Predict the structure.
Amino acid sequence: MKTKHKIIMGDCLEVLKSISAESVDLVFADPPYGLAKKNGLGWKYSKHITLQEAWDIFNKDDFFEFNIKWVTECMRVLKHGGSIWVCGSFHNIYQLGFILQHLDAKINNSIVWFKPNAQPNITCRMFTESTEHLIWGAKNHIKTKWMFNYNLMKTMNNGKQMRNVWEIPLTPKSEKWAGEHPTQKPVELLKRIILACSKEGDTILDPFVGSGTTSFVAKSYGRNSIGIEKEKKYLPIIKKRLNPPQKTINDSEAEVQYLEN
Ligand SMILES: C[S@@+](CC[C@H](N)C(=O)[O-])C[C@H]1O[C@@H](n2cnc3c(N)ncnc32)[C@H](O)[C@@H]1O
């Protein structure tokens, strides 16, 4: 099956307005968590510095308003029965859950992503955060039932029902070959979500596509995708991942477009 992939460079609050209502089957959003500091913290003996990207820095009121706006737009473009997945940490996930419930999404699960090799805590004044959280909601589930590929998930979990605690290590170096994005998600995480909640030929939207992980996984599994990203510095990474030097069978079947908003 030939799939189509659009990468639209621009602010998702603007770009989303140009996408038709009820036109996408699945939304995956990995938004700013609002946890970055102007000057990140680091260890003496390690190169790792906590997030300090300007795109993740908001004041309290602006952050809430931003979250309401993009979630509302994502719910508008989602088809009836479509799924929306949002991810975050304690910094943003409660707000996102509140907004989704307020917009009448049916919450199906909250997933705890356990990172066995999470970075140590630098301040030593609290427990080491080693999880992120994902909320899976569905739109107008009474009119049209949401999709859940139960049997496939069970098969992927050695024949046992898949639980809501997912143990997935941090994004391995082997997936970062195309360049550095500070919050690139592991392919395994997106693979589970896309295979669980969509079928071949469906369209998946990611309003914060970053290094292009969602589009990359959608392309690998025969789904169409729309990815939005506002930082131009990440475009070369996205391009390398979506048009790799060595083509696979799926690559030749895909058309990738890069658009400026
Ligand atoms: C948490 S990262 C997403 C990482 C992505 N899941 C990946 O695997 O690479 C959030 C991304 O959203 C982008 N971003 C932040 N605000 C945005 C906005 N208003 N519109 C579009 N992109 C935005 C950032 O530049 C960043 O790349």
Notes: The chain has one domain: 3-260. Helices lie at 12-15, 60-77, 93-102, 150-156, 187-197, 213-220, 235-242, 249-252. The radius of gyration is 18 Å. DSSP finds eight helices and nine strands in the chain.
